[in-house]
Amino acid sequence: MATPKRDNLRAARALVDAALQGDAQACASHGIALRTLQNYRKLLNTDEELARFYAELSRTVITQNWANELNLTLTVAIRKQGEMIRGIDGSSADTISAVTGAIKALSEIAITRDVLRAGEVNDAGDGDAD
């Protein structure tokens, strides 16, 4: 009797979850045994499709986590600036300026993230416009 084909996408999801949450949680979430997860890890070295799925899912999760953290940080910074402005006094202008500078930097990072996500960056990094 033939062995059923492994679902590489499911295996890659389990491996990504194991990297983020630990083996026990990933096994419980995906309904697999620890030995199965360990076998998936070994197969990353030999199964090109599994390795590709794992790399793509990992990249997606990392990018999403980074984007969520950036959005949260921007929201907190903007709220803090609003609080500072409402309670402004002559000696806190330097603090407000520093917070404004931080918000500007974070906003530029957010714009960069959005451009990279859209795939609009085609610069080879050689100083010439592409």
Can you offer a commentary on this structure?
- The protein has 130 residues and is mainly α.
- 75% of the residues lie in helices and 0% in strands.
- The longest helix is centred in the middle third of the chain and has 39 residues, at 48-86.
- The protein starts with 7 loop residues before the first helix and ends in a 12-residue tail after the last helix.
Question: Helices, strands, pairings?
Answer:
Elements: H1 8-21, H2 23-30, H3 34-43, H4 48-86, H5 93-118
Helix pairs in contact: 1-2, 1-4, 4-5
What brief labels describe this structure?
single chain, 130 residues, mainly alpha, 5 helices, disordered C terminus
Number of strands: 0
What's the helix-strand series? Answer: HHHHH
Shape: elongated
Low-confidence stretches: 120-130
Number of domains: 1
The whole-number mean of residue pLDDT values reads 79
Compute the separation of the termini in Å.
56 Å
Question: What's this model, at a glance?
Answer:
The chain is an all-alpha fold and 130 residues long.
